[in-house]
Predict the 3D structure of the following.
Amino acid sequence: MVVPVHDVAAYLPACLDSVLAQSHRALEVVVVDDGSTDGSGAVADAYAEQDARVRVVHQANQGLGAARNAGLAHATGALLAFADSDDVVPPDAYATMLEALRRDDSDLVTGSVARWEDGRLTEPPWMRRLHRERRALGIAELPELMGDVFAWNKLWSRAFWDTAGLTWPEGVRYEDQPTLTRAYLAARRISVLPEVVYHWRIRTDGSSITQQRSSLADLTDRWSTKRDSLRSVEQWAAGAPAATGGEVVDVMRDRVLAGDLHRYFTEIPGCDDAWWELLRSGVLSLWGAGAPGGRGPTSLTASGLPPVHRLTGWLVEQGRREDAAAVMAWMAEHPGPAPRTSGPDGARLALPGLDPASLDPAAVALRAHEV
């Protein structure tokens, strides 16, 4: 397995302790010290001195993707796993995944994840939904599984990894999604497990990449990885039966790629002009009239986003920055279900300050399960 490390001396011992305590003992742990400046490399070296299963690679800082690739170059086992150095792996995780890989003759196994925050473990509802039962399948049977974009809750066949030509993008954030998308599309069979196989530490110090969404660099990389992933799905769909390929593309666009937009929409109040323009251009490129296979200028209204975020997405598409900011600011101050009303056309959102006559009915419509 590969553990990339950069300036995580405070967290690395817990990670390595959890890996080395696995009930599956036959491990090769390649720790890649990616130019750490805080003593993380020395911590890793100390573990290597104490346990022959640990090897350490030291390199100049090149980023997460490059560190993972460096670890891959040094890994010799028939199986692959990845762990981020600030997280923890439950004791039976690899044994459980290995059993499934062998039982199902799968190319990769994915289990559920628990967020580790403020000393509590919580399985996100969307992860629980994707992993609600034990099964082995191809991605066309559960295309929404492509929303499970994490590298570290999985066990891979190294033969599959190499045959599929998989690698991690370098020099870009959110490198997991393009690689995971290609892996799902290439796999003959994927084992999906309900067990939680990874504890994902949620850091509150702002140093996590996923806590830097208000930066231009973050948003630029996010659009890049979304477009890359969608291209892979569209290429795969071109060789699949039309109905199957179309369904997988639709799920990828409307549920998987749209799934984290709400995290960016919350940054709209107070954002600068450049960030707003980048947000809007990205939304239009993936969901607007000019998007590949575009289905009209308001396609985010058909996405799997919650109602308020579908509305916000439509406002972004229309360039209505002040209204989008007002909606997000109002919701931040009023947690809970958004105001709604009913009329001849059914239930719809009724947020203060928005003129209903100025809104596309599809942008405020509520679905049956949302009423």
Confidence is low (pLDDT under 50) at residues 294-298. The first strand starts at residue 2 and ends at 5. The first helix runs from residue 12 to 20.
